[in-house]
Amino acid sequence: MTLIEQIKSDMKDAMRAKQADRLKTIRLILAAFKQIEVDQRIEIDDSIALGVIDKMLKQRKDSISQFQQANRQDLVDIEQAEAEIIQAYLPEALSDEEIEHLVINAVHKVNAESVRDMGKVMGILKPQVQGKADMGFVGALVKKQLEG
Asked: For 100-121, what is each residue's pLDDT tens digit?
């Protein structure tokens, strides 16, 4: 079962179980997929879906930090609930050691010698770590590896 099929199945289950909050969040995910299909005139596959879900999770985390600064616990709770539902559709996160190993392999694969080669390395790493690691963290590791 593909990720998109799983999400649609979960939507039906949430409807049957009358889980309004879960249903709302799943519909947000599916609406984001539909928006990309319409805007870009493409068929969404699992890799694109993971990218969309990852972006949605980052948005929730940013919102949580902003709402915490504004002392709006009611909105923090809503965003955290949505983030938990969204997080469930992402694959298990890679450990720091696994990420470092992938970075080292990618650097050797493209014979990267300086920070100027960072784009080549990130191009190899992105499909491998999409949805499994924070790309900012991965980028910092690549930069560190290329500088050191």
From this structure: 999 999 999 998 888 888 999 9
The yes-or-no verdict on residue 148 having pLDDT over 80 is no
- Within 13 Å and on the Cβ side, how many CA atoms surround 81? 14
Alpha helix (H) ranges present in 17-134? 20-40, 46-69, 73-87, 96-109, 118-129
125/86 Cα distance (integer angstroms): 23
* Token code pair at residue 19: 């889980």
With a pLDDT cut of 70, the percent of the chain lying above it is: 100
DSSP annotation of 132 reads T
Instruction: State the pLDDT at residue 147.
Output: 85
| The domain defined by 96-147 carries CATH number 3.40.640.10 | no
Q: Select from 3.40.50.2300, 3.40.50.1970, 1.10.1510.10, 3.40.50.300 the CATH code of 3-87.
A: 1.10.1510.10
